[in-house]
Amino acid sequence: MHSTVALEHADDRETLLRSGFHLLLFEAEARFEQPCHAFHEKCTIYDERPMLCRSYRCALLRQVDSGEVSDADARALVATAIGLRDRVRPAIEALVGSTKTHSLAVLMCRMDDALAAMAPPERARTHAQLELEAAELLTLIADRFEPRSASTSSQ
Ligand code: SF4
C-alpha cells in the first residue's frame, strides 16, 4: 500500500541502520522503503520496530476494534485483497519488466506509464483484465484499508 514509512524522533536510527535499514532523507525527515526488508512472513525486528509500525492501524482494523466489522468479515476482505494482489502484482511486474521488489504503489504508477504509452487497441486487447483488477484493488485499498495517515506515503 505504501512506498515509504516515516521515522519519528523517538526512533533509534542507529539500531535501524545496524539492522540493515536503508534510510531515505527528505529534508529533516527520514523514511524507509516498502516493502520492508525486515518482513519475512512476519516482522523480524519486532522489539526494535519503528514507532509508526507500533501505532499503525488500518481502517479495517479500526472498524474491527469498534465492532463495526466482524472479525470473520474482516478476514474475508483481507483474503479478497490478497487474492487480487496476487493476480495483479505479477501481471504488472511482467508488463513493466520489474526485477526489483517495489511497493504496489510504485508498480501501479509504472503500470499507468506503460499503458499510457500503448496504442488504445493494443492496450484494450492485452491489458483490459489487468486494468479492471488493478482498479478493483485500488478501490478496495482506498475504501477499506487506507488509514488516512500523513506519515505513510503511497508515492
Ligand atoms: S512492522 Fe517490521 S516488517 Fe513491518 S514495516 Fe515495520 S519494521 Fe518493517
- Can you give the helix content as a percent range? 40-55%
Order of helices and strands: EHEEHHHHHE
Extended strand count: 4
Radius of gyration: 17 Å
Dominant shape: globular
Structure class: alpha+beta
Q: How many distinct folded domains?
A: 2
How many individual helices? 6
- In the predicted model, the low-confidence regions spanning at least 5 consecutive residues are none
How big a fraction of the residues is strand?
5-15%
End-to-end distance, in Å? 10 Å
Would you kindly provide a written description of the structure presented here, covering whatever features stand out?
It is built from six helices and four strands; from the N terminus they run E-H-E-E-H-H-H-H-H-E. It is α+β, with helices and mostly antiparallel strands. It folds into two domains: 4-55, no CATH class; 59-149, no CATH class. A four-stranded antiparallel β-sheet has the order 2-3-1-4, with no helix packed on it. A hairpin with a 2-residue loop joins strand 2 and strand 3. The protein is globular and about 55 Å long. The model has no long low-confidence stretch (mean pLDDT 89). Bound molecules: iron/sulfur cluster. Residues 36, 38-39, 43, 45, 49-50, 53 line the site of iron/sulfur cluster.
